[in-house]
Amino acid sequence: MAYFAFTEQPGQEFIFELTDPEKIAHARNIISGVEKQRVHVIGRIRKQGKPYNPKYSFHLDPDSISFFDLAIEVCDANMDYVEEHLDEAGGAFLPGGHWCPWDSRVTREVTTP
């Protein structure tokens, strides 16, 4: 298990958990600059906060997370917008709970308390 942060403009940061060794290696390759194509994060949101990301009352299901280069517009949203409209997520807004912020980029590995 490892924790990573992705950023969005303007200067927002979201922490997420990975449990799959291949995905952990992929995230580390993004940070090191080895991976240059699939650098954006996609996953299914769960409407429950996590202690490692206290600013938000939702998290990404670690089993659903992957990385992408291009994605459809229907899953793109800013993290603060998701928080403000969380009650609508999973319906017409972020169908199926899939979230793929287009400007997300994994920036660092996080040590949690």
TrEMBL record:
Name listed for the protein in its UniProt record: Calmodulin
Annotated TM spans: none
Pfam families in the record: BP74_N (PF23621)
Domain BP74 N-terminal positions: 2-112
